[in-house]
Specification:
alpha/beta, 3 domains, Trna Endonuclease, Chain: A, domain 1, globular, 5-stranded mixed β-sheet, single chain
Length: about 290
């Protein structure tokens, strides 16, 4: 399930949702804009940053973490501090929010960051410890819906759809998000089965159209990757002779942008040993 993209859609639709997860709500909560930023030298990509509307405000960093990462805090604090340092003249303070499905997903080694984790600038949210989903604000309930078991999710999704039609002025956006969550959660079900589960028609929602378009786009990219890999393998065979099954498999698994780099690097290769070195260096960078 692609929880990252779902969470970021939630934050884009309703940026002040982040502050509903915190102990206290800043007076300027409605003025924040959700964005992603890049920090150079070295380059970090920070996916979740909440930027204040006023100058000299507080910047909020957000990390949604559903898989255990034993170096999460190393990365989060490095990215946040570097970005704050590069933009010190824009902000008066910083806050960091890490959202986990439960405490079991959190990094094991906390000792090096005990001071930061115990301060009022770092907030850890464990979704499993929030109260009953039906007692939560509607936007917070959407976050919790992503964590529910498949046996429980359909009932709660239908409840949220009914509740949305009564109490929310953003009912269309919420219906779209509930649908997105359920389509990704039940990827093994057909369109009609998901429709029957929710009691709606997916063709009427934007998410269904987006998912179909996403599938077509992924298919095009995959096709281009296969063509690029096939061309590279033909060039290698023509220049150096038989290419091993292992090398063929490694090349076929490369993403398109890397295949494009390899197609240029081949011009400088004098033997298959150069190819092995190139692949080893790429695989080392990925780790």
């Amino acid at each position: 399930m692609r929880r990252d993209s779902i969470f970021y859609k939630l934050f884009q639709q309703y940026p002040s949702l982040l502050f509903q997860l915190l102990p206290s709500l800043p007076t300027t909560a409605d003025g924040y804009r959700f964005d992603s930023v890049a920090v150079k030298e070295p380059k970090f990509e920070i996916d979740g940053v909440f930027l204040p509307s006023e100058s000299d405000g507080v910047v909020y960093f957000c990390e949604v973490q559903f898989q255990k990462d034993e170096q999460l805090y190393e990365r989060v604090f490095a990215e946040s501090f570097l970005y704050f340092y590069r933009n010190r003249d824009r902000f008066s303070d910083w806050q960091t929010v890490i959202i986990y499905p439960s405490r079991s997903t959190e990094q094991t080694s906390l000792q090096p960051y005990r001071a930061l984790l115990g301060c009022d600038q770092v907030h850890r949210v464990y979704l499993s410890e929030l109260v009953n989903i039906r007692d939560l604000p509607i936007w917070v309930a959407l976050i919790v819906l992503t964590t529910l078991e498949e046996s429980q999710a359909p009932d709660e999704a239908r409840y949220l759809l009914q509740r949305t039609s009564v109490e929310s002025s953003s009912s269309r956006a919420i219906i779209e998000l509930v649908t997105t969550i359920m389509v990704y959660k039940f990827e093994n079900l057909s369109q009609k089965e998901v429709e029957a589960m929710l009691g709606i028609t997916l063709q009427e929602t934007r998410v269904y159209r987006e998912i179909k378009a996403e599938g077509r786009e992924e298919g095009l990219i995959k096709g281009r990757e296969q063509e690029a890999a096939s061309l590279i393998l033909r060039l290698l065979t023509k220049r150096f002779g038989v290419v091993s099954v292992d090398v063929r498999s490694r090349i076929s698994g490369l993403p398109l942008v890397v295949l494009e780099d390899l197609s240029e690097a081949i011009l400088d290769f004098v033997s298959l040993d150069d190819l092995q070195v190139w692949l080893a260096e790429y695989e080392k960078r990925r780790k």
